[in-house]
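Re: that backbone. Tokens:
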């Protein structure tokens, strides 16, 4: 070690990097070398290989990051409520149509739908509900395909890491 500056020379770091790659260092020495390599700017094939190996071993030994779950906010509750209302509306009309009964035959139950302050007729409400349902299904399909693509990419990375 260079006694003047208390820093390693490039040649000393190459020797230590070779020792690391040959598994001749203790765990404590490996950690110390990792700190030194992260803080110095020297570069050579041996030093760079040691850095890459240290990064790979750190990645493999660290636990997977936990996904942050967002709390339910008022907006999310309103979206869920709107979706539930649309589903209820569609289900009510579907049941009534399947049984041959008119949509408002029972005077004890009435459904009134407003969108942007405008009252919708039964036909308009049904059309809007179907449009909402189809857009939700399209978003769901997009999300599923995106999740499958991420899963495939993760499996490729995992297989490359194992090999």
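Recovered sequence:
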């Amino acid at each position: 070690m260079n006694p003047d500056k208390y820093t390693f020379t490039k040649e000393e770091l190459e020797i230590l990097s070779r020792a690391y790659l040959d598994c001749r260092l203790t765990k404590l020495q490996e950690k110390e070398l990792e700190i030194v390599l992260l803080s110095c700017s020297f570069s050579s094939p041996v030093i760079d290989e040691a850095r890459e190996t240290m990064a790979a071993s750190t990645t493999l030994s660290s636990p997977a990051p936990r996904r942050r779950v967002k709390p339910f906010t008022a907006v999310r509750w309103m979206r869920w409520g709107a979706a539930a209302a649309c589903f209820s509306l569609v289900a009510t009309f579907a049941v009534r149509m399947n049984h041959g009964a008119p949509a408002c035959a029972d005077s004890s139950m009435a459904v009134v739908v407003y969108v942007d302050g405008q009252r919708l007729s039964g036909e308009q409400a049904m059309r809007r509900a179907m449009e909402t349902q189809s857009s939700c299904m399209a978003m769901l399909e997009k999300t599923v395909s995106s999740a499958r693509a991420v899963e495939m990419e993760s499996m490729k990375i995992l297989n490359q890491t194992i090999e």
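The two ends are 37 Å apart (CA to CA). Strands lie at 113-115, 118-120.
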